[in-house]
Amino acid sequence: MREDSVISINPKVMSGAPVFRGTRVPIQTFVDHMGSDEDIKDFFDGFPTVSREQAMELIDEIKERLLVTT
C-alpha cells in the first residue's frame, strides 16, 4: 500500500477493517453505498469525517491498483 494512501489498516481501528485514513469509516461502507440507489450526497451527510477529496483519492487509488492500462 502506498505511504500516502487514503486507506488505513490498523488492527486497533475497526478490528483491522480498511478505513478512510484519519476516520473510523470503513471503505466497505463507501463501496456498499456506491452500489446502492442512494445519492452520494447522502454518504457525505452520513459520514462527515470523510471528505469528497478522500473519496476521489480512493477511486483514483482503486483505478491505479486494479485497472490495467494499455
From TrEMBL:
Protein name, UniProt field: Uncharacterized conserved protein, DUF433 family
Lineage: Bacteria, Pseudomonadati, Pseudomonadota, Gammaproteobacteria, Candidatus Kentrum
Superkingdom as given in the UniProt entry: Bacteria
Organism from which the protein derives: Candidatus Kentrum sp. FW
Any Pfam family the entry gives: DUF433
